[in-house]
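User: I'm designing a mutation panel for NADH-quinone oxidoreductase subunit N and want to avoid disrupting the core. Could you give me a predicted structure to guide residue selection? Please restate the sequence first so the numbering is unambiguous.

Assistant: Good idea. Sequence first, for numbering, then the predicted structure tokens:
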Amino acid sequence: MTASLLMTLPEDVLALGALILMLVAAWGGQASTKAVSWTAVAVLAGATISLFGAASSGGDAFYGLYHADAFAAFAKVLIYGAAAVSIIIAPRFFQRGAGDDLRPEYPVLILLSAVGMGMMVSAGDMLTLYVGLELQSLAAYVLASFMRRDTRSAEAGLKYFVLGALASGILLYGISLVYGFSGTTLFSSIATAYGAGHSLGLTFGLVFVFAGLAFKISAVPFHMWTPDVYEGAPTPVTAFFASAPKVAAMVMAIRVAIEAMGPATDQWRQIVIFASLASIIFGGVAAINQSNIKRLLAYSSINNVGFALIGLAAGTQVGVASVLYYMTVYIVMTLGSFLVVLQMRGVDGEPVESIASLAGLSRTRPLLAAAMAFFMFSLAGIPPLLGFNAKLAVFNAAMGSGLYLLAVAGFVASVISTYYYLRVIKVMYIDEPAPAFDSERSLVEGGLTAAAAIFVSPLGWLLPLGAWTMIAAKALF
């Protein structure tokens, strides 16, 4: 039992921290918001530190229900980092643009969501996976509707809840089918059942499980919640949704595909290839006529999930490593883009979300425009920025598995999304200037934006990210 608790130390730290901070928030009220927020960031840092040791290489905890390996540890570093950024950037947004609606429950919900995401990426059993998924989702529903006096936020929370409940039902039905025809919920035993021979019931279970997972990563055709929720939720919450849960859901899908359903690769690969190409094409086409920058980034997330799925379709160690590499670069690019959106404020201090408001930004805020250009070029996969290397990694993984047509189709379809990324750059650098944004600067937002821009720049190539992702992927095989 002690060994199992040491392996689950990151979740223990986060859960204990969340419970204590919840009590502090209850007694301290609104006045405790700042202290609770920074303490929550410290708790996330503590959880990250606790990953070094048994939590990253301890093996299986609680009789195989939980995996403590380098694969999960790598994902948790990304999740905790994105969660910390989402907490740090929240106060200024709510203070200036939302009538001071930030309450100490916000960082507590982020911590509880992080506990769920940690269980998702370390799950060794379908029920562990489902419990973690529900914990993450329940916190996310509240976060989406956190601005109680804002109708868009309330609508976003309701849509997310209704569609999320539907997806959870689909996933749970798939799990019940897999359990019914395999007699187990452990990933290792499920893999044995799939390897024993063809079973129509197991095939149906596979389809339903992957349909539920597709909703969580917002892959086509289960993407319908993404644009509305991204637009309606508070911008720091949207930044959180676009980063940490996306990584957790993708890593969870990889673990299910490789560890639980590895012998059925030929069956789930067809689903993944369809979802990949559909997401790339739809995410590219649907974003072309968007006028709201948050909706554009929502379709961009759908598009990028499609590229990540190309690596998963390979079904190899190299393919898994390429997905981890892609998701690492993706969350930095996305968080950087939303950091720029957070700094889009009119002279009255209210948030501005229209793409047209970026017109002439290169003349009024040249450094902010340069950072946004870096993120847009990198999302488009333009060399020598790091986004190019991420796309190249998933294409190489697909070709290494003989999926040449998939790689070529993904490359050709990437041209569609390049158009709307370049349109944002054109608006900033060529169009006549729009009214200037609020001149007030934030050292925190500016510093985080600069750090993200440096990461996706050619300097990012100096990091041994490829070696790290290969080590993490090796733990899964």
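For picking mutation sites, this is relevant: The chain has a mean pLDDT of 87. The CA atoms of residues 40 and 107 lie 6 Å apart.
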